[in-house]
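Sharing a chain and its predicted structure for anyone who wants a worked example. Both blocks are below, sequence first, tokens second.
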Amino acid sequence: MSKEATGNHGQVLGSFSYFSQINRATFWGNLPHADSFAYDRVLREVADRAEHAISSVYDDLQRRKDTLIAIPESDRKKLAKQVQAFYDVSSMGGSFSGRSGDCVSLLEDSGGSSFSFFTQREVSEGAKKIKDSWQYSSAEAETLVERAAKWGIDWAADGDEKKKNFLKEIEDGKGQRFLAEALQAYQKLGNGSDLNGRNGYRIGSDSYMHALERDVFGCNVPTSYSADWGNPQYAKLLREALAEISSQIEHHLEEALRGNCYMRDENAERMREAVWNLEKCGISTFSYSGIADKLCWYVGGDEYKIRQLQQKLNDMGVTDRLTEDGVYGTAPCRRWLGQTGCKQTRQELESERQRMADAMDCQTPSCLKAHHTFVLIHRTTVRVII
């Protein structure tokens, strides 16, 4: 028996509930407004939010650019990777943020002078030793390091072994220039007590980056794709979700075609639009929207009368036996017209269905057969669409 095409969970193919169901089975279903088949529109909205997130990070970095050295280097690297991942999403949706490169530059250059002979890690460790001193107050430690950077450790220590050991531990054999850079970094650390971004979290922290993810995607991102590991894969996550949706649609359409199922006009139209929207997102659909066209043969009608007609045609024995399912499609029409292999438009199918509905007034097989013969003769005088 022919039936209307459905998906794995019973939703009618092409219906609004069908798209909502297959979307929810992937990450895509967690996105705002992602319960429909407007995949390209949702992707553009995500891309716009990704671009806004990059701008937000840039504003935070600009406001705190003199104290960014207080952010651990590992956190700065992770945040730079996240900005680049947001840029990939914005590009995927047709938006292009000009601030992503600026953010990366600020994060990479935040360790001090670009002409330093020392690594950011070395300078940061030196600054941390000044800050963590328990032997001297912050003012005393700063004064000692400043004097040593200008005139040397021996002059600054002035014969005091405790001061000399303190300064040598910071200097670590790297010389007066290193002491100057460590002191500069320490002073920036002192001004970095408030490193919170506009979302209320410390710039570069896990909470800061998770908040940005929620702003862009409206939900938590799976750990394997998030910024947690320092290499977020947001664009890959979206592409995989769309590819899975595309695969499900293709599978359901092919299953329906094998099962001789049908789709109503409005559902087939939504299915064709969904396929086109996936194409606009860069997902190859292999033109399987054509399958929806093949399934779109249903022309409606009174199921009871159509079943009666199928039964009478079977009683007449003028055709191969029809399935008495109350569904009028190409098979009853072709058998009725004696035009096996004929391809007809939906308008012709509807017209012939109406003729057969009129023929239902014939109550005997002989009357029906006479009407059938008249139609065959009549059809020889009109154009048959192939």
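Comments welcome. The longest helix spans residues 39-63.
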